[in-house]
């Protein structure tokens, strides 16, 4: 029987994840209509922060898609969605500064980020096989397959947990830098917090779902051992 008491908690976590996604979009849309007093666009904020933190070689590119913003450590490029790149709203500059935060982490060899980069090739491999191993283990009642699947899935969960301090640190850097450089005013900090905290919540929810699923699989594994 695949149903497990932990499924109830996982469903709650899924509910939190869905709510977090709506909150991200809601906060972004709300603060995307509020212009900053400086009038700087997301691209301008990103460029100035990069230059002032000795990263003039890091490029900034506009990309299609909403909330598709990210920092590419391989190409050393900050990619901003068009809304963020060209926008001068509190939402735009918040997201742009957050991605610059990742570039600065990379420059300073921030521990959690470096660990995540090293783990990525392994996690990219294990996360692809874990679902099939677990499914095969449950279908054929094979504890060895389930155990291997748990090990592979653990790597993916660890990757998500390590992502949390990386994201929170990037947001913290973003707020500190923008205030220090006069890019936002104190009264605008509330909007910045709303945008960045909502985004961080999505990572927390995703990590919680994966962690609860891992606990469920481990409990099933040990229960199967006892029955044998």
How would you sum up this structure, described in words?
Strands 1-3-2 form a three-stranded mixed β-sheet. It is elongated. Strand 2 and strand 3 form a beta hairpin. The protein is mainly alpha-helical. It has one domain. The model has no long low-confidence stretch (mean pLDDT 94). The chain is built from seven helices and three strands. Helix 1 packs antiparallel against helix 7 and helix 4 packs across helix 6.
The rounded distance between the terminal residues' Cα atoms is: 16 Å
Total count of domains: 1
Number of β-strand runs: 3
| Beta-strand percent range | 5-15%
Q: Could you describe the largest sheet, including whether it forms a barrel?
A: 3 strands, mixed
Structural class: mainly alpha
Poorly predicted regions are none
Residues in helices, as a percent range? over 70%
Q: Give the SSE string.
A: HHEEEHHHHH
Record the strand order, biggest sheet: 1-3-2
DSSP summary: helix tally: 7
Quote the average pLDDT: 94
Apparent shape: elongated
Q: What Rg is obtained from the alpha carbons, in whole angstroms?
A: 20 Å
Topology:
Blueprint: H1 6-31, H2 42-52, E1 59-63, E2 70-72, E3 77-81, H3 82-86, H4 90-107, H5 111-139, H6 143-180, H7 189-227
Parallel strand pairs: 1-3
Antiparallel strand pairs: 2-3
Helix pairs in contact: 1-7, 2-4, 4-6, 4-7, 5-6, 6-7
């Amino acid at each position: 029987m695949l149903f497990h008491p932990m499924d109830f908690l996982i469903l709650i976590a899924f509910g939190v994840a869905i709510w977090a996604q709506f909150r991200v979009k809601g906060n972004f849309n709300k603060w995307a209509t509020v212009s900053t007093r400086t009038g700087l666009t997301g691209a301008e904020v990103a460029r100035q922060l990069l230059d002032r933190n000795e990263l003039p070689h890091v490029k900034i590119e506009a990309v299609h898609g909403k909330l598709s913003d990210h920092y590419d450590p391989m190409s050393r490029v900050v990619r901003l969605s068009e809304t963020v790149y060209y926008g001068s709203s509190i939402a735009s500059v918040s997201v742009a500064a957050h991605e610059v935060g990742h570039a600065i982490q990379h420059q300073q060899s921030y521990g959690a980020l470096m660990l995540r980069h090293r783990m990525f090739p392994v996690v990219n491999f294990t996360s692809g096989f874990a679902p099939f191993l677990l499914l095969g283990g449950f279908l054929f009642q094979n504890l060895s397959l389930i155990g291997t699947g748990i090990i592979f899935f653990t790597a993916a969960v660890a990757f998500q947990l390590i992502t949390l301090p990386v994201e929170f640190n990037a947001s913290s850097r973003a707020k500190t830098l923008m205030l220090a450089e006069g890019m936002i005013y104190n009264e605008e900090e509330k909007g910045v917090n709303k945008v960045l905290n909502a985004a961080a919540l999505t990572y927390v929810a995703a990590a919680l779902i994966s962690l609860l699923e891992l606990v469920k699989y481990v409990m099933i594994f040990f229960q199967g051992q006892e029955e044998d």
